[in-house]
Structure formats: structure tokens, C-alpha cells
Design brief:
elongated; 61% helix
Length: 80
């Protein structure tokens, strides 16, 4: 399922169901800072537990998010 399809399915939900989904997502997947995400990803890669696929247009960072991700990657020696 693509990101666009997920967005459409969520937008089609009744408000109360969408609210329950939001609560579940936040409880199950707490908001993390970029540094935390990059650190966890680097650990998984280093242990050979994850081989990331190249980004797609749907999930490629842009603008300020891209700038921040590049700074974090450089700080963790992941920019090579």
C-alpha cells in the first residue's frame, strides 16, 4: 500500500475511528527525534539486521528536513 493510498484510507474514516487510530499510532510508535532514529538505524545496519532501500519520492526528505538529516548523518559518520 502506498503512502497516498494510506492517506486516502485514513481521510475516509469517521472522525472517532481516525482519533482512535491516532492514539494507537502515538502509543505504539512514540515520536522520536531524528538523532534517535538515525542512531537506531545505524545500530541495525552495523549489526547486519537491516539493509535500507534507497528513498522514493514518497519518503525522500526535502528542504529543512533534508538539511537536518544530512547534518545528523555527517555527525554519525553515515554520510559516506
Amino acid at each position: 500500500m502506498s503512502t497516498a493510498e494510506i492517506k486516502q484510507a485514513i481521510e475516509a474514516m469517521p472522525d472517532d475511528e481516525r482519533a482512535r487510530l491516532t492514539v494507537w499510532i502515538v502509543a505504539r510508535y512514540p515520536v522520536l527525534r531524528v538523532e534517535q532514529l538515525m542512531g537506531r538505524a545505524a545500530g541495525l545496519v552495523a549489526r547486519g539486521e537491516w539493509a535500507p532501500t534507497p528513498p522514493t519520492d514518497d519518503n525522500r526528505p526535502k528542504g529543512k528536513l533534508l538539511d537536518h538529516a544530512l547534518r545528523v548523518a555527517e555527525g554519525r559518520d553515515l554520510d559516506k
